[in-house]
Write a structure and sequence with these properties.
Length: about 290
C-alpha cells in the first residue's frame, strides 16, 4: 500500500488539524438521513476509519450515542484526543482500516455507521471493504468522502499550477502511487472502486462537486467552500503527506517546495497582499452505501 508520512511518529498532527478544512453540516445530514431511511436503523455506535485529528468524528459525536475513532497513527490519535471534548463518548483505537475486525479490535456486527473522511485511499480497498462489512450491523451504513483541489474561483488557471506541483511526477505528485493518482483524478469514472464496493455493499450513491468541471451546485450535500489567503495555501500544502515525503527526499532544495508553488501563484496573479482572502470551492466527492 502507499506509504504515508502521517504514520511517522513526528508527523505534525496539530499543524494538520489547524490548516485542514472541516466538512459541511449538509454532508453530515445527508449521511445520517441516508442511514435513517432504512427502517430499523439507529444511531448508536459510529466508527471513523482513519479519523486523523478527529475533524470528522467531532461532527458526528452529537448524532451518535458513542463513537470509536480509529487511526494507525499514534500522533494523529493523540491530537484527536485533544481536539474532541473529554465529555464526548468517544473511544480511541490505534488500528488500520484493514484490521478493524481482526483480533477483537472491533466487535463483529456491532457498528451502525462507518465513516472515512479523506482517508480510505491509504487502504487496500478489498481488505478494508471486507472488514467494514464485518463490523457493520446488517443494513449499517458506510460513508466516505474526499476533497481534492481547492479551486480559487477568482484566479482562473490556478488549478493548472496546482496540478503541476501537486499531481505531476516532476514535483510532489511523484509520491502519489498510480492507484492514488487514478483515485483522485478519475473520481468521476472509478469503475474499479465501484466494482469493489458492489461486492460488499448495496444502495450505492455517489456525487461530485467540481467547479472546474461544471458540476457545482451550492445546494449539493457536499458543496464545500472556504476563504483562503496565499498564507493559508502555504500552510495547507505543508500538511500534505506528499509535501513531507518531498522534503525528506530533497534535503538540499534551495527553496521549500510549498513556497515555490505559492510564490509562482503569487507572481502569476500579481497578488500583492498575502493575507488577502479569496473564495475557494473545493472539488469534493462522496459515496454512501449499506451493508446488504
Ligand atoms: C488525510 S488524513 C484524514 C484524517 C481525517 N479523517 C480528516 O478528515 O481530516 C488521512 C488519515 O488516514 C490515516 N491512515 C493511513 N493509513 C491508513 C490505513 N491503512 N487505515 C486507516 N487509516 C489510515 C492517516 O494516519 C491519516 O490520519
Amino acid at each position: 500500500m502507499p506509504s504515508t508520512s502521517y504514520l511517522d511518529k513526528n508527523f505534525k498532527s496539530s499543524y494538520y488539524n489547524k490548516f485542514r478544512p472541516s466538512y459541511p453540516e449538509s454532508l453530515v445530514d445527508k449521511v445520517v438521513s441516508y442511514h435513517m431511511k432504512t427502517p430499523g436503523n439507529e444511531c448508536n455506535l459510529l466508527l471513523d476509519v482513519g479519523c486523523g485529528t478527529g475533524i470528522a468524528t467531532k461532527l458526528f459525536v452529537p448524532k451518535f450515542k458513542k463513537c470509536i475513532a480509529t487511526d494507525p497513527s499514534s500522533a494523529m490519535l493523540g491530537c484527536a484526543r485533544d481536539n474532541i471534548s473529554k465529555d464526548a463518548n468517544v473511544v480511541y483505537k490505534e488500528v488500520a482500516g484493514e484490521k478493524l475486525a481482526e483480533d477483537g479490535n472491533v466487535a463483529l456486527n456491532s457498528i451502525d455507521m462507518v465513516i472515512g473522511a479523506q482517508s480510505i485511499h491509504w487502504c487496500n480497498l478489498d481488505t478494508l471493504f471486507e472488514q467494514v462489512n464485518k463490523v457493520l450491523k446488517p443494513n449499517g451504513t458506510f460513508a466516505f468522502w474526499f476533497y481534492t483541489q481547492p479551486e480559487f474561483i477568482e484566479l482562473p488557471g490556478f488549478t493548472d499550477l496546482y496540478y503541476k506541483y501537486g499531481w505531476s511526477d516532476e514535483f510532489m505528485g511523484h509520491y502519489l502511487t498510480p492507484y492514488q493518482r487514478h483515485f483522485f483524478t478519475k473520481f468521476n469514472e472509478n469503475e474499479e472502486l465501484m466494482n469493489k464496493l458492489r461486492k460488499q455493499f448495496t444502495n450505492i450513491e455517489f456525487e461530485i462537486s467540481c467547479h472546474s468541471q461544471g458540476h457545482s451546485d451550492p445546494n449539493a450535500p457536499y458543496y464545500q467552500t472556504t476563504e483562503m489567503s496565499m498564507e493559508d495555501l502555504r500552510h495547507l500544502v505543508k500538511t500534505w503527506s506528499l509535501y513531507t515525503s518531498w522534503v525528506k527526499n530533497h534535503p538540499n532544495d534551495p527553496k521549500d517546495i510549498a513556497d515555490r508553488f505559492v510564490d509562482e501563484v503569487i507572481n502569476k496573479f500579481n497578488i500583492t497582499d498575502e493575507s488577502k482572502m479569496f473564495k475557494v470551492q473545493w472539488t469534493t466527492f462522496y459515496y454512501v452505501c449499506r451493508r446488504s
